[in-house]
Design a protein that fits this description.
heterodimer, A: 213 residues, mainly alpha, Serine Threonine Protein Phosphatase 5, Tetratricopeptide repeat, 10 helices, 0% strand, B: 338 residues, alpha/beta, Hypothetical Protein Tm841, Chain: A,domain 3, 2 domains, six-stranded mixed β-sheet, 9 helices, 12 strands, 33% helix, globular, Dihydroxyacetone kinase (chain B), Dihydroxyacetone_Kinase (chain B)
Chain lengths: 213, 338
């Protein structure tokens, strides 16, 4: 099996466009409102870079774009994740091991930098269950479901890190935008790697706050 | 309404270009991404020293780039952290055999952006250690996980670490020393008038004539307490006592920084200095080094901060070591004039 990295990132970019309004609304509740913009911009720049250099490893291209060209803090943290995945894919002979170890290393880097633990209402809450599924040898679709469920569960926790920590209970009931946005990477990966899996569409998975899917 | 005299487009970039042109023998400008590096450095230094943070605190950090202090400084936008790419590229430019030391003021954005850069540097095989400056007593609280802010002590830490690095110490030794310098440093700040808001002009917050903000931050964060302005002698004594009480053992003396917050005159700063020296003399605390001036302002805030570092045997030589930077007054001549 060879997973087409460029297809994963192009699909992730489409998902970021579909979810842009919802991610922006979520971040207006819990942050400074720019996460939807930053994720979409990072992925649009990635797609442009892939068009310009189609023979570069796509995840490595995306990692550089998110680290170098995206503002805020969540975008460059996603860049750390993508860079770790690209390094691991280049080293591991087995592609599944490459993704699993890359997510593990990337999550470790994000936790070192952001000093966030599971339950702090950050992207870590989507990444930990995704890592556990992948390292445990589960399917990409299971990792995607775990990441989406982890992101959804952040609706029930108060923030202790990041900007949302300043506003306490006001974020209860809405999931963390960073966790939601990073979960969509695993959704795109599963869609490309296991097209037979039933995962649902982005519009249902990331509804506008206040609406029922 | 008062406005800052800055261009609307890219005010920091324009100012940093002007800074570099003002000090052509000392610093080199790098524009994409934006940072400055020292032109003349001590070959004995084994690790490059990089600092940076939001702009609006000049001369911090670029003013302390040069021989004996920083190898590079990375300016963010006004009161905003620099981008990780600036830190990453600046660190690559000045890394030495043992790698690079980051001096970071304790703010969430700075910690994350320097942290991302550190991860990238390590992936490139460049060793990185971080020294976190957290001297501001006003933000000491057991209730939050964020800890004390980094403020005036940054200048003292940058000088001591620069001196230590030029004595040929290893990266790990510098990181441990830097942590010790920070643990031995505390500050408190007061303001009588807020800084001009860079985005909309006018005062960023309003104080009545009889009020002072006690424990103000360097980004115009309001203090926990607004107090009725005490008499000059009482205010300076209270600040001195608060810093001293928070310091470890001061028997080896202190380095004292009386720092203007932007709009405070030398007339005032030297008067504050004289009064603090009187209090320290009375308490029997030896002052082994001092710095009086505008070193870590909050744009044009009217106010001042008091920082003290409780020195340990062996540290004073690094404070007095030669330096040649745009903004740090030579401590060698201070020693000769004693």
């Amino acid at each position: 099996m060879t997973i087409d990295q460029a297809r994963v990132l192009r699909l992730y970019a489409e998902a970021a466009h579909t979810a842009h309004e919802a991610l922006t609304a979520l971040d207006q509740i819990s942050g400074d409102g720019d996460f939807g913009d930053n994720l979409r911009e990072g992925l649009d720049l990635t797609v442009a870079a892939l068009d310009a250099s189609p023979y570069e490893p796509a995840v490595a291209v995306a990692g550089s774009v998110f680290l170098d060209q995206v503002g805020g803090t969540s975008g460059p943290l996603i860049g750390l994740l993508l860079s770790a995945i690209s390094r691991s894919l280049a080293e591991e002979p087995d592609e599944r091991d490459g993704w699993a170890n890359g997510v593990r290393e990337g999550l470790a880097a994000i936790q070192r930098v952001g000093e966030a633990e599971p339950g702090d209402r950050t992207m870590v809450d989507a990444l930990v269950p995704a890592r556990d599924a992948l390292v445990g040898g589960e399917k990409f679709a299971d990792a995607a479901r775990a990441a989406l469920a982890g992101a959804a569960a952040t609706a029930h926790i108060r923030a202790r890190r990041g900007r949302a920590s300043y506003i306490g209970d006001r974020v209860l009931g809405t999931p963390d935008p960073g966790a939601t946005g990073v979960a969509l990477l695993f959704w795109a990966l599963a869609r490309v790697a296991e097209p037979e899996a039933v995962l649902g569409e982005v519009g249902e998975l990331v509804p506008l706050p206040g609406t029922t899917p | 309404m008062n406005h800052l005299f800055l261009p609307e487009a890219e005010p920091v970039d324009v100012s940093v270009r002007g800074f570099a042109r003002a000090h052509p023998g000392l610093v080199a400008l790098h524009e994409d991404p934006l940072f400055v590096t020292a032109l003349d450095t001590d070959p004995a230094r084994r690790a490059g020293i990089v600092s940076g943070g939001g702009s609006g605190h000049e001369p911090l950090h670029a003013g302390y780039v040069g021989r004996g202090m920083l190898d590079a400084a990375v300016p963010g936008r006004i009161f905003a952290s620099p981008h990780n790419r600036q830190v990453y590229e600046a660190s690559r430019a000045v890394a030495r055999d043992e790698g690079v030391l980051h001096i970071v003021k304790n703010y969430t954005g700075d910690r994350i952006n320097f942290g991302i850069a550190a991860e990238r540097l390590r992936a490139d095989g460049i060793a990185v250690r971080r020294v976190l400056v957290d001297d501001d007593l006003a933000t000491e609280s057991d209730l939050t996980a964020t800890g004390r802010r980094g403020t005036g002590a940054t200048v003292i830490v940058e000088k001591l670490l620069g001196g230590a690095a030029d004595s040929g110490l290893a990266l790990d030794e510098l990181a441990a020393l830097g942590t010790a310098f920070c643990a031995a440093s505390r500050s408190v700040a007061v303001a009588g008038r807020a800084q001009t808001s860079p985005s909309r002009g006018g005062e960023a917050f309003a104080l009545r004539e009889e009020e002072v903000e006690y424990g103000v931050g360097i980004h115009g964060e309001r203090a926990a307490r607004t107090i009725t302005r005490p008499p000059f002698e009482e205010l300076t004594e209270r600040m001195t006592a608060q810093v001293l009480d928070a310091l470890p053992d001061t028997r080896d003396g202190v380095v004292l920084l009386v720092n203007g917050l932007g709009a405070t005159t030398q007339l005032e700063l030297y008067a504050v200095h004289e009064r603090i020296r009187y209090v320290l003399d009375k308490r029997g605390v030896p002052v082994v080094g001092q710095l009086v001036g505008t070193h870590v302002p909050a744009l044009d805030m009217s106010g001042f901060s008091v920082t003290m570092t409780a020195m340990r045997p062996g540290w004073l030589g690094w404070w007095q070591a030669p330096s040649r930077t745009p903004a740090f007054p030579s401590q060698e001549s201070q020693e000769l004039n004693r």
